[in-house]
Amino acid sequence: MMNKKISTITGALVLLAIAGALSASFLFSDKQEKETQDQKNVVSNNSGLENKEEIKQEAKKTNGDMSNKESETTNKQGEEIDTSSWKICKNEKANYEFKYPNDWLIVNRYLTVLDSCNNPSSPRSSGFSIGPDRYSASNKSFGIGTSTQEDLEVTIYKGATSLDEYYSRNDKLLSSRTKLKETTLQDKRVDWFREQSDNKISIWFFHNNTLYEIRSDIEDQELLETILNTFKFPNN
Fold first, then answer.
1. What are the CA-CA distances from residue 76 to residues 64, 71, 80 (Å)?
2. Which of 106, 116, 148, 217 registers the highest number of CB atoms within 10 A of its CB?
3. What residue ranges in the chain does DSSP mark as E strands?
C-alpha cells in the first residue's frame, strides 16, 4: 500500500516536472517569437524611415532642380540684348539714327544692298528695309518712314502733333489694326499695333512734331523694342 502511494506521488511529481518543462518551453518560445517580431518591427520601422527619408531627399532634389530651371529661365528672360557690336543706321535728312544687328543688311525696294540709310530716292519714307537677308520673303525685316509737318500739310492729318490728334483725323485708322501695347521713347508715347491687312507690326510715335512709323515682319517684340530704344535724333 505504501509502495503504491509512493508510486502515485512519484508519478504526480514526474507529471508536474513535465508540465513545468513544457510551460517553460512555451514561455521561452513565446519570448523568442516576441523578440523576433520586435526585431522585424524595428527593421520595418527603420525601413519605413529610410523610405521616408529617401522620398524626402528625392522631393528636395526635384524641387531643387525645378528651382534651378526656373532660375535659369528667369535669368534667360531677364538678360538684356547686347547692342555694343551693332551697326548704326543714320539718316541725316530724316534726322534719326538707331542701331541694328551687325549681320543684317539695308536693302531697297529693288533688293539692292545699300551702304547706308541715306536713300536718295526716298529720304524720308520706307524706301528701304533692314533685316537678316535681302529678300522680303524672309519675313525678318522692318522699314521706317517719317512724316514731317510739311508732309502732313497736304493730308487730313494736317497739324497733328500727337498720336491722339493724329488718330482723331481718321475714324477708320484704329479700327483697321489691333493695339498690342504702349511703351515710351525719351518720354514720348509709343503705340504698337498689329495690322489686320497684312499681319505686320506697326510702331508709331511723334517726336518734335514729326510722325515716325516702323513696320515690321519681325515677331520678336523684345528685339524690336531693343532697336527702338537705341533711337537718337541728332539735330534736336
1. 18, 8, 9
2. 106
3. 87-91, 96-100, 105-108, 128-131, 142-147, 177-185, 188-195, 201-207, 210-216
Q: One-letter amino acid identity for 38?
A: D
C-alpha cell at 223: 528685339
What is the maximum alpha-carbon separation in the chain?
A: 153
Listed in sequence order, the residues at least 6 apart from 14 whose beta carbon sits closer than 8 Å to its beta carbon are: none
pLDDT tens digits in sequence order for the chain, 236 residues long: 544 444 554 554 444 444 454 444 444 455 555 555 655 554 455 555 455 555 556 655 555 554 444 434 333 455 788 999 999 999 888 889 999 999 999 988 888 888 888 765 554 555 788 998 887 656 678 999 899 999 999 999 999 999 999 999 998 999 999 999 999 999 999 999 999 999 999 999 999 999 999 999 998 999 999 999 999 998 87
